[in-house]
Design goal:
The structure is a single chain. This protein has seven helices and two strands; from the N terminus they run αβααααβαα. The chain is mainly alpha-helical and 193 residues long. It has one domain: Peroxidase, domain 1 (Orthogonal Bundle), CATH 1.10.520. The protein has a two-stranded antiparallel sheet. Helix 1 crosses helix 7, helix 2 crosses helix 5 and helix 3 runs antiparallel to helix 7. It binds 2-acetamido-2-deoxy-beta-D-glucopyranose.
């Protein structure tokens, strides 16, 4: 549990600049409850959802920060088509949440915040740690698969992994925390099944 919480702290601390908990409390008070409701509904039919949404959040944040760029469809060159993002799923859940949020509060809630909130809700639904997510991210407009060429790969040596994490301002300890906590979330989900 504390490892998973460290993961979240690491991811969030990378881009905390102007974010705050409850950013939408005036402009779209129901935002977080809408996210939670859609995620809860989707989790009923897919027990892997927490792992899927955590992975989507990690992959989004690792390339140019948590800016939703992995969601942007820009044709063949789209970041989501990068080799390093292979097997990343959960896009349709984010789209379903976005559609409800647009109906409730048009043009207010960013897709990058949806990804961060959805990962949080899915993890807590899987009996993982509950944590607050500062919001107010702006969505990136660039989606270019060449920006995702430095995603960590299973086949990477520890030296390569260290270099890739260091490029993102993450040290060796954070590399271990991220790897172990991602594994532990997956493990807990498998054990629950
Ligand atoms: C994508 O990134 C590469 C490498 O930085 C660049 O050469 C290319 O022009 C970019 N493509 C687009 C459509 O922005």
């Amino acid at each position: 549990m504390s490892l998973a919480l460290s993961l979240v702290t690491v991811i969030l601390s990378v881009s905390l600049a102007d974010l705050k908990v409850g950013f939408y409390s005036n402009t779209c008070p129901q935002a977080e409850s809408i996210v939670r409701r859609v995620v809860s509904g989707a989790a009923l039919s897919d027990p892997n959802l927490p792992a899927i949404l955590l992975r989507l959040h990690f992959h989004d944040c690792f390339v140019e920060g948590c800016d939703g760029s992995i969601l942007v469809d820009n044709g063949a060159i789209s970041e989501k088509n990068a080799f390093g993002h292979e097997g990343v799923r959960g896009f349709e859940i984010v789209e379903a949440i976005k559609a409800e949020l647009e109906a409730a509060c048009p043009g207010v809630v960013s897709c990058s915040d949806i990804v961060a909130l959805a990962a949080r809700d899915a993890i807590s639904l899987a009996n993982g740690p509950a944590y607050e997510v500062p919001t107010g991210r702006r969505d990136g407009l660039v989606s270019n698969m060449s920006l995702a060429k430095d995603m960590p790969e299973i086949s990477d040596t520890i030296q390569i992994l260290k270099a890739k994490f260091m490029q993102k301002g993450l040290n060796a300890k954070e590399l271990v925390l991220l790897s172990v906590s991602r594994a532990s979330v997956l493990y807990e989900i498998l054990v629950d099944q």
